[in-house]
Amino acid sequence: GLERGAKNQFSTFSNFITTINQKKEGIGNRNSPTQLVIPNIKNVRDLPPICLDVRQKQRISIDTLPQELKAPIPPEPSLPIRTKTVKDFQDDMEKAKSSGDWKAVHDFYSTTFDSFLEINAAFKKDTNSPFNTIEDSGINAKFVNVVYDALLNTPQDVQKSVLKGIINGLLQEWKGPRTKDDLRAYCILLQNPQFSNTSTYVIYAHLLRQIAALTEADHHFLVHWSKKISQRRFKQLVDRLLQFISLRLFPAKPEEFPPMVKCTWWIPSATKVLALFNAANSLISPSIISYTDFYNSTLDHIDLMEEYHNWQCYGNSHRFSFCQYPFIISIAAKKVIIQRDSEQQMISIARQSLVDKVSRRQKPDMNMLFLNVKVRRTHLVSDSLDELARKKADLKKKLKVTFVGEAGLDMGGLTKEWFLLLIRQIFHPDYGMFTYHKDSHCHWFSSFKCDNYSEFRLVGALMGLAVYNSITLDIRFPPCCYKKLLSPPIVPCDHNTLVGICDVTLDDLFQIMPELAHGLSELLSYEGNVEEDFYSTFQVFQEEFGVIKSYNLKPNGDKIPVTNQNRKEYVQLYVDFLLNKSIYKQFAAFYYGFHSVCASYALLLLRPEEVEILVCGSPELDMSALQRSTQYEGYQKTDLTIRYFWDVVLGFSLDLQKKLLHFATGSDRVPVGGMADLNFKISKSETSTNWLPVAHTCFNQLCLPPYKNKKELKQKLIIGISNAEGFGLE
């Protein structure tokens, strides 16, 4: 009942709340959240700690702050004595519901939310304790939850009294730094469920503005306190902020809000507060909620390239861009940014080639606008390596592939086939570049030393070309690989700078070599005498071409025994050796190959998990979703042949479904946007029903003859999709 009864009330609130701006004039612009710290694109390490993403994983701690931020803690004012308990409040609610007399409940709410002091008096666990640490907020979370859960079930005058009290608190004149009691009040007010209602957004916006304008030291406290909130309520807070941003961007009823020109600070404030919750979420492993829960799909419908260019052009100026906070941008939106950035680079490179040709008075050739790769199937890897090495300058042009001796024209299908066959051959165990770990079902770099690492560079370039040309690959690398690929996300100018080196943990090793990781975990938890029972040193052994070689994990490691005291260091050095040092040259070549194609500031927006999705797509097939999005040409979805087709396909094993997807599209992976992004089409083939189905992989099109019965369709379809290598022209 809040929205209907409170609307007129909030119109007067809006007039009243505008005085907040006048109250804040004296504070100065330095605390305004419209003047946000924007990441310096040239130096990734300058990013503000509050924008935690793939480039910043360090643990936020008040102890890591510079000395100037460690201001003396101001004394807390004495709090009123409030003795009401959770049970007392619940009893008052029951009496009010049964009797209809809400006076006691009304008095409690109006008093509790009348000021920040009263909020602390009611909800602080112990009013005599300071609770000045980041680990304990001192908030009685159970009481807060009970009070808020009951709030929306109270009469409107009770709910209005709470909002009036919040306005009083926000209008308070602030002198000097905030106390921890103030931060507690902000933390409690953020959880108010009334802020899900658009009629409260003017008040909510000013609350967010004040929180966004807090000092970095205060933000650290809020971040650490937020990670203690339960998962359900944490997600509600995040969803409320996302909804606020969405409705301010695209209001269902514009008249409910002030004109956008007068509240340009709403969205920056909300986004910065959302960044606090993202930072809290990143501090815990496993995280409280999935990183995808911070995506705001509404942003898919704004001018993303304008956001991207603002971020690129204005650097550390005070112009807001969502790209400063990439956690809020969905993977689908990031894919659009990367694709358009790639297209612009392709056009620029092609235009330059054309200008160079004309300036030399040579006749332009359309082939010069593409990266033309010509290979023999029998010499696939060597030919591909030679072609990409010779045409380094053309890597950012549109890719076109030709198989020698075949008449197929590359409209996209030959490119997909080339990627698939090349990846299959390079990752074969006999090839020796990568080791397949059966326990984790993933590949990892072989640590064997060799004279030439150019083939690793080729694999990196292939991954880059796949992202650049929107092709999904069937590559099974562990998440750690993509973390290393973004270390750093922009290739350093100094060639002596190490690349592909990141902080690795035992969890990373579990994803690759679970058995070894389990053994190291047992070592860490062993209760006996490690030195006497394990008799190990800081030295590891590896087999290379039948020869056992030893490596010291630290200087004179072969003479340093592993003990109970130094075993953590041993495990960390061992993991670092396996995932960083032993494969450094291989991975560095791979890193430079990938970035030779994908060098773009757009990579700064990505998490490692998102790079993996862009490269590999999703392995999860939903054929029902494909059925819903399929288009038809010459058929209706109710035709008997089509009904036979889907009955057969939905009954296929996963292996056959993947073969069908590969037959029709050239890849058995699902793109970022899901099955709907495939634009899959089934066309009627007027040929004899004795013929097998035909696919045009360039257009994700399946040509299906009108088979007379389900048995015949299934037989012909299985034969077709199981013998689907090679191209020709009709």
Automatic annotation (TrEMBL):
Keywords, alphabetical: Phosphoprotein, Transferase, Ubl conjugation pathway
Pathway: Protein modification; protein ubiquitination
EC number: 2.3.2.26
GO molecular function ontology, one term from the record: ubiquitin protein ligase activity
Active-site residues, Swiss-Prot/TrEMBL: C698 (glycyl thioester intermediate)
UniProt cross-references to InterPro entries, sorted A to Z: E3A/B/C-like, HECT_dom, Hect_E3_ubiquitin_ligase
Highest taxon in the source lineage: Eukaryota
Enzyme class: transferase
Start and end residues of each HECT domain: 391-730
Pfam entry (one): HECT
CDD domains xref list: HECTc
Catalytic activity, as annotated: S-ubiquitinyl-[E2 ubiquitin-conjugating enzyme]-L-cysteine + [acceptor protein]-L-lysine = [E2 ubiquitin-conjugating enzyme]-L-cysteine + N(6)-ubiquitinyl-[acceptor protein]-L-lysine
Biological process per Gene Ontology, one example term: protein polyubiquitination
Task performed by this protein: E3 ubiquitin-protein ligase which accepts ubiquitin from an E2 ubiquitin-conjugating enzyme in the form of a thioester and then directly transfers the ubiquitin to targeted substrates.
Name this polypeptide is given: Probable E3 ubiquitin-protein ligase HECTD2
Species this chain originates from: Eudyptes sclateri
Gene name, Swiss-Prot/TrEMBL: HECTD2
